[in-house]
Amino acid sequence: MQLTRLTQALLLSLVAGHAAAATLDSSREHIAAQAKALEPELLKTRRDLHAHPELGNSEKRTSELVAKQLKALGLEVKTNVARTGVVAVLKGALPGPTVALRADMDALPVKEVADLPFASQAKGTYLDKQVDVMHACGHDAHTAILLSTAKILTGMRDTLPGTVVFYFQPAEEGPSDFIPDGKNTWGAKMMVEEGVMKSPKPDAVFGLHVWAGVPAGQIAYRPGATLASSDDLRIKILGKQTHAGRPWDGIDPITVGAQTIVGLQTVVSRRTDISSYPSVVSIGTINGGTRYNIIPESVDMSGTIRSYDYGIRQKLHADVRQTIEKIAESGGAKADVTIIEKYDPTINNPALTEKMLPTLKWAAKDDVVNAPLVGGAEDFSFFAKEVPGLFVFLGVTPRDQDMGKAAPNHNPGFFVDESALVVGVRTMASLATDYLYGSTGVSK
Ligand SMILES: [Zn+2]
Ligand SMILES: [Zn+2]
């Protein structure tokens, strides 16, 4: 039988489609098998990192361990990126797009309370003070997960259509030697500033975060705004010192400070459109005065401003500034207001999120739920501002535990149920491969 050209073309594309679909299916099978096989090594690495946590920009041992493992895989490895970061590039044998996978490596000035054989005894220096250090945000898990992912994907190099870049970033929580001079050295921000995303330029970036209060192995995600922006608010109210029995002789910055705190509560409740996203303005510290019968010269306060939208964020800054300055003026005082932008909002690209949802479902065996907005912030936002990004949460609270009672991230009792980590490897590896195969015209 003579086949027409069209029929031939159709048959060929069908065969090609099946072959490619088979590649996608077989890549997932490979990932599943390898993730399981590598689990002992994954846990060993995670426990080693957990026992040796290091603060932001001091991740010396951690980045050496990471670089050593990546070099052993034969990848192109760059060290000392953004001070202590590591970047590795895996070039697949076939042409295709580029994806970036990110893990953060830093720990927190927190004293661990868990009774684990690999509990942290580490100390570090935080803002010139000696502190206990703990992986209280689970970045040890992220680093171990991405190292296993790199190993699995390197083993698939011969069939990989495209490039995978691994970002092991420092200082997600901020540097341990941060001086508020406007020179921010948050890891992701600095990596972007150093041009890490320029060569090779990824088409998409993926990251995950282990999360307390979510059942171990469950993935929570949301399209669009996911974590808040976080900006530092610093206020100095300048009055005029006098005897507290004769307040009319001076200008009382304490009373102005009290009015300022109350006034700031109206910025969100009266002046901000909360129909799309919530916002938060909180004051965390007040310092002023030395003695009960002296009205001091000045009062210092600090706080945080959080939002989920760039436009709302800028309006909040203007409203906060105006509220503080005008309240001070009404009391005859002066206010110096400094707002330092620390973290951008983390916004998941909606189209990328939709495209990768089947991958998340595969990775977590259908245990995927919608996440609420998170009031915390993440510097993954700086990567996701450059190219489409997706950042998901991986539950790490034991399933037999009351989720509402789990010690949250950053708490001294923060605990990772390690059974979830293999799901993290399935997630990161398949996000990369599914994206690469999907972008070469194959999707399941
Ligand atoms: Zn954290
Ligand atoms: Zn974190």
From TrEMBL:
It holds the Pfam family Peptidase_M20. It comes from Pseudomonas monsensis. Residues 1-21 form the signal peptide. Residues 233-329 form the Peptidase M20 dimerisation domain. Keywords: Hydrolase, Signal. This is Amidohydrolase. InterPro entries: Amidohydrolase (IPR017439), Bact_exopeptidase_dim_dom (IPR036264), Peptidase_M20 (IPR002933), Peptidase_M20_dimer (IPR011650). The lineage of its organism: Bacteria, Pseudomonadati, Pseudomonadota, Gammaproteobacteria, Pseudomonadales.
